[in-house]
Hints:
With about 160 residues, this protein is of the alpha+beta class.
Amino acid sequence: MKNMASISPSDQSAPVPLDAVDERILAAVRRNGRLTKQALAAEVGLSATPVWVRLRRLEAAGVITGYHARIAPGRLRPMVRVLVELTLASHRHSDFLRFETAIAGLPEVVGCQAVGGGVDYFMTTETPDIDSYQRLMDRILGMEIGVQRYFTYIVTRQVKAGTD
């Protein structure tokens, strides 16, 4: 097994070899990123220090990239989630880069994935209402970032999200 502590940042795109204990650690922190060192150790069947060393190695290797809270936006304010299927007019590298750079700066866009197949991107937006969503799309189209067409899918119910 390659020593994960010796993986340089340039190697972080390569798969990191994991053993069964590493897999149990990842499963545990995926379910609950706020586990204490002792609780994580108990869950994976090791003492606290070796588990903590392994956890730090997984972080250093880029396997664990952060710890996040799942927020229920609808509990904070009215919110409409819309999935958007987008196709660009042109498919040069510079076209994708221009689109991705522009989308990254829009707070209403909470997710965007480049995909293979008949479309180029699936984008997730969260806005207070449908009118706000349409204003967002009008703004995106006005940015002239190469969007040829888009299709809107309004989320009516969240069935599964993240690690739920």
